[in-house]
Structure formats: structure tokens, C-alpha cells
Amino acid sequence: MNRFLWPLGIFVVLAGFLFAGLYLNPREVPSPLIGKPVPAFSAPQLADPGKTFSPADMKGKVWLVNVWASWCVSCRQEHPLLVELGKSGVVPMIGLHYKDERDAGLKWLAQHGDPYLLSAHDRDGRVAIDFGVYGTPETFIVDKAGVIRYKHTGPLTPEKLRDDILPRVKQLEAAT
Amino acid sequence: MSRALHRLLMPALVALLLPWGALHADDAAPVASDPALEARVQKLGEELRCLVCQNQNIADSHADLALDLKKQLREQIAAGRTDDEIKTYMVERYGDFVLYRPPLKATTVLLWAGPFVLLGAVAFALLRRLRTRAVRAAAANTLSADEHARARALLNGEEKQV
């Protein structure tokens, strides 16, 4: 009896692992940047190329970085949610306009709404490499001291925003 | 009619194709300019995972991000950085997942040692099994004095078979 139970046991364990694997997201790669200072950069602003943006400008505030582009289809998917968030004024959000033409970006914002305090224009994607961006859209939470506290890859959902992003923002804002 | 059309279209076609040739020549330029550097980019790129197309390395991939990262490799190699420094640069941004050969540390011990532990466990189980079987077989092979006598008799043909 035992010799038939053994293979069955092994099969059940393997099947269990594979089944659990079905529900894991291989695209969710843990970011080594969490707990690290936000990368220092200086990039021209999308709306006003004469001015630049640098993360140092946001010191003392809890803020979000959202990586977006006009060619990014999933960005469009999450955008209405971001517009709503922008209107609520709960937390300032900086856009990182990733590997895209200025005109295309401005047109896209005019068409779909601009939830960002401002967008930094990362034409060649160098800033995004420092952020470890590999799939747009990506959203980061940065705390008052300029440390990255959280990262989400892929389009935000209302649940994600309500359960993961906003509570963290509130908590970080309460911290001195 | 058709010949006139032909005469009209051919130059247009040629004009369309020419810039393409020029573009491709442009693409290939860095490879020709410094083969040693390109070889290092290729070698390093094979060690690094493309995070957009996760089962491909950077050297093989034509994803936008992979092209950008190859550009990074090229620049950093040209700037005189060592392979280890460049790998550290990538890991700082994308994590250990970017390496096809993850480093040995607390979280990856199972990954590295797991197969050997499993092999050892199976070998141990197999050895034990073989040994008990040998013991059992040996036990089964020992004959009592009576059986010995009968066997000898059989071999000598002194006893008729039943």
C-alpha cells in the first residue's frame, strides 16, 4: 500500500506548488529601491522645458511618482483613477513622462486630464533606469525624507489605491 | 499604360528603399567601430535578464528597455567600469532577479543548495533500501543443515525429484 501512496503524495505536493504558482505574478519583481533614497536627477518639466524638476524640490512632503507615457496602453487604463486622485488633492503626484515626445505627452494630458503637480520629461529613459522601471505604469511612494517606501508595477486599481497606497501615504504623513 | 506606370513607380520605389539601407548601415555602426567593446556588451548582456521579456537576456532581446540597458552597458564599459561594478549598478536598480546567476545569500540558499540536498536525501534513501534488501536476501539465502543436506543430495542426483 505504502509504495503506491508515496508517488501520490509527491504528486499532490507538486500539484500544490504548481497550483499556487498559477496565482503568483512573475512581473511583480520586488524592488531593491524600497527603503533607499529616491534617485537624484534633474529633468526638464514637460509643460515648461525651461524649468527643471529635481526630487529635492519635494523635500518635506509625502509624494507619489507615476511613470507614464502616451504610448502606454495600461496608463490609459489607470488614468481616470489618477485624475480623481489629483482632484482630491490628497497627495501630490509627480509624473515621469517616460520615453515619449513632448508634444504627444502634452496632447495626451490635455485629452485625458492632468492629475500631476508637474511632469518631468524623461525623453531617453535614463531617469527611469535609475528608478528601476521595467513596465509602465509604475507608481512609487516617497516619504518626507525622500526615501522610497513603496512601489507598484502596472495599472493602479481602486482597490490597490484604497488598500495599499492611501493608507501608507496617511501613515507616512503622520510620521514626523 | 502599364509601362508608363512602371516608369513612374520605379524611381519612387527606389527612393523609398534607399533610406532604409542607409538606416540599417547606421544601426550596425557601433558593432564595427569597436569589436572588443561589443563582445563585452554581448557577454555581460547574456548574464542579465530582460525584465520586460523575462525569459530572455538583454543581449538577445530587442525590447525597448533591453536596448536602453545595452546602451548603458556600452557607455559604462567605455567609461572603464568593471563587469562587477556594472552588475552592481543593475542589481541596485532591478534587484537580484536581473542576474541569471543569483548571488549566494540567506534568501537564495534553498535555490543553490536545494537540488543537492534533494539528491543527497534520495541517495540516502536508496542506499538504505538497497542495504535492507541485501540483508533480507542474505537471510533468505541461509539454509538450515537439513536443507543443505537435501540440496547436496539433489546436486549429486541421489534424490529423485518430487
Automatic annotation (TrEMBL), chain A:
Domain (Thioredoxin): residue spans on this chain: 32-174
GO biological process, one term: cytochrome complex assembly
GO cellular component terms, A-Z: outer membrane-bounded periplasmic space
Gene3D superfamilies: Glutaredoxin
Keywords: Cytochrome c-type biogenesis, Disulfide bond, Redox-active center
CDD domains tied to this protein: TlpA_like_DsbE
Pfam families in alphabetical order: Redoxin
Top-rank taxon: Bacteria
GO function terms (MF aspect): disulfide oxidoreductase activity
Subcellular location: Cell envelope
Primary localisation category: other
Record-stated family: Belongs to the thioredoxin family. DsbE subfamily.
PANTHER family named in the record: THIOL:DISULFIDE INTERCHANGE PROTEIN DSBE
UniProt protein name: Thiol:disulfide interchange protein dsbE
Lineage, opening ranks: Bacteria, Pseudomonadati, Pseudomonadota, Betaproteobacteria, Nitrosomonadales
